[in-house]
Amino acid sequence: MGLTKSSTGLGAADPGLVIQRRWAGDRVFALAGNPNVGKSTVFNALTGMDQHTGNWPGKTVACAQGCCLTPAGVYIMVDLPGTYSLMAHSTEEEIARNFICFGHPDGVVVVCDATCLERNLNLVLQTMEMSPNVVVCVNLMDEAERKHIKVDLELLSQRLGVPVVGTTAREGEGLGRLKAAMEQVCTRGQREPLTIPYPQPIEDAISTLEPLLVEKSGGKLPSRWLALRMLEGDRSLNGELAGCLGPEFLTDPEVLAAVEEARAELAGQGIDRGRFQDLVVETLVGRAERVCRGAVVCQDRRYADRDRKLDRLLTSRRTGYPVMLLLLACVFWLTITGANYPSQLLADGLFWVQDRLTQLFVWLHAPDWLHGALVLGVYRVLAWVVSVMLPPMAIFFPLFTLLEDAGYLPRVAYNLDKPFQRCRACGKQALCMCMGFGCNAAGVIGCRIIDSPRERLLAILTNSFVPCNGRFPTLIALIAMFFVGTAGGLGASIWSALLLTGMILLGVGATFAVTGILSRTVLKGVPSSFTLEMPPYRRPQIGRVLVRSIFDRTLFVLGRAVVVAAPAGLVIWVLANLSPGGISLLQRCADFLDPLAGLMGLDGVILLGFILGLPANEIVLPIIIMTYLAQGSILELDSIHQMRELFLANGWTWATAVSTMLFSLFHWPCATTLLTIRKETGSWKWTALSAALPTAAGVVLCMLFTGVVRLFGM
Questions:
Q1: How would you class 7 by CB atoms within 10 Å of its CB: exposed for 0-12, middle for 13-18, buried for 19 or more?
Q2: For the chain, what is the largest distance between any 2 Cα atoms, rounded to a whole number of angstroms?
């Protein structure tokens, strides 16, 4: 049967969560924890779902749900966003708090990192104030052992008064004990959980309010936690309290009078709202420290030597940026080198299918226009997009995911935090920007990790300044034709990777520049602070990385590109085959654009290729070739050398190639990205601006470059 829990809500960012119970006896458990503690890995291991497990933008902003089957019954596991606190200072904290408190789960599993247990216990203590049924899952026990950290789980359980289970979720160790602990808190109850004693003035205020709140709330919420929140004046709770206790609770004269009286007593002792919050946080942190004292956590002070040495190499001022650039160049070199052969094989296979489709249409005596529209138009464009996009993405995404799984991407964000702070933006934008290298649409979705609406909008508007995977074929082909040579070999591929890295650095620089301009004009504001935790370095799980990167990223992005490329193929075929007055509409459009394109160092055919390539950047070069050859369908020449000869015959020079590369780097995002921006911002105005910004930058740069070339006669 189904049980809908939407009346309680999950805050403004998530209006409700539907918990699907298969049977009336199914129990619901929330899974909470700090980022990078392996919470989603625990979720995957319990439910068998392939949930993303790295610290990737937007990973668990929306709650994931799955079934955990045990001999005792079925548990519905809800994977909450990773948070450091439940004080509701961010969207993630608000979602997690609201589900634990108002979603009425049967229990909460709080996942902690065994290597930094004291810091994680802050969230455990807050959760214990909100829920009577808490299980502490101390994960990453293998990492703790490797770093010579010993955790006395039994003593920790005695001090907290709740079950504590040690696990290594990556290896599936300890999950049976975790399920048993979940069953225990649901059926047999547990010892009296630890009560956090606050300073005496706050305890006196709680004691004054609690009896009245128990009466007015009907026991629906923990009275001690509710008293703390009422004294704090947490307005983010108003909507949830009204939904749970009724709107009259917030306006009840007795409640309002009692709260005001308690606050007045606190103010008389020098505890205003700000001081109250500080004392609450200090008490929680101090209690977490005392819980871990003694024999609970024992560690060798030399345990982090290896990680510290790696961090000195990867995040220091002298070596952090060079290593980052070197790794980026290596990723691009592997992508360029590895994608050529499978891309050719895939193209051969897909175009073999095209020949079979042609034979089928001939056998069916289908009219030529139908064969042209469907096979030479729609299918041929789809074949081109798939053969060009799939191999590079199938290499790039796994390599990128390996860096993420090993713990390197947060170090990239750390390195780039200061430049983004100088631009008055959020350092988390570095992660979104890195994701944009694979796909700008995915990078835009990743901006959800940024809490500030202003900074999130900044990241969305500038994400398209870094080239996505779809622009690489054009950039690589032009580099090979005009600047590296067409002979191929190891040297050529290395030079291609270095030149491509240089183009990407230009895009990163433009991202910083435009972000700084926007944050000082249209989107003024002060950069917000955020906590960026450095996860431990870990050996990547190769099998999981390959599965996740192929199915969750590569095929997802490819599917969205195919959806927009199919109608584009039909439009391109129609324009190429309708020839009023003996000149195709495609050529007429190119002639119309020629004056503007000439100012940019291009020609009308090149500019038309970018316009018609709006659905997918991969089809820009084929459209240019098709127009030059006056063919009726999209095509590719057999070699880079033939392509270069065709371009030279149509007036190309090295300057034309540079202008084309600049415009390929800076022009409107593809249709998939634009639709994603519209969905994320909810505004066509911001979507239009996100297209106009890189386009304006590309036009200006091309005109300036062309002007300099013509001025000096180069």
A1: exposed
A2: 93
Give the chain's residues under pLDDT 50: 1-18, 21-24, 50-61, 486-487
What type of residue is 714? M
User: Residue type at 415?
Assistant: N
- Interstrand relation of 64-70 and 73-79 (parallel, antiparallel or unpaired): antiparallel
Q: Mark out the alpha helices in 364-379 (DSSP H runs).
A: 368-371
Sign of CA dihedral 210, 213, 219, 220: negative
Tokens of 315: 């995040």
Helix, strand, or coil (residue 8): coil
Give pLDDT tens digits for 64-74.
Answer: 788 888 777 78
**Cα separation values, 359 from 352, 354, 453, 629, Å:** 11, 9, 55, 25
Q: What token pair was written down for 133?
A: 């049924």
CB 127 within 8 A of CB 281: no
CA atoms within 13 A on the CB side of 402: 12
Given a contact cutoff of 8 angstroms between Cβ atoms, the answer to whether 531 and 449 are in contact is no
Per-residue model confidence (pLDDT) at position 599: 93
N-terminal to C-terminal alpha carbon distance within the chain: 75
Cα separation, 331 vs 441, in Å, equals 20
Which pLDDT score is estimated for 631? 63
The token duo for 549 is 């990167």
Q: Which residues of 156-182 are buried (b: 16+ CB within 10 A; e: fewer)?
A: bbebbebbbbbbbbbeeebbebbbebb
Residues 6+ apart with CB under 8 A from 203: 197
Counting Cα atoms < 13 Å in the Cβ hemisphere of 202 gives 24
Radius of gyration of the chain (CA): 30
Amino acid at 441: A
Q: What is the pTM of this model?
A: 0.66
How far are the Cα atoms of 30, 77, 183 from residue 27, in angstroms, in the given order?
10, 9, 10
Residue by residue, DSSP assigns 128-175 as HHH-S-EEEEEE-HHHHHHTTEEE-HHHHHHHHTS-EEE-BGGGTBTH
Q: Which of 259, 158, 166 is nearest to 206 (CA)?
A: 259
Pairing relationship of beta strands 149-151 and 164-166 according to DSSP bridges: unpaired
3-state secondary structure of 651: coil
Position 368, amino acid? D
**pLDDT score of 607:** 94
Cα 286-290-295 angle, rounded to 5 deg: 155
Closest CA to 528 of 460, 441, 452, 458: 452
Cα→Cα distances 689→552, 662, 683, Å: 29, 20, 10
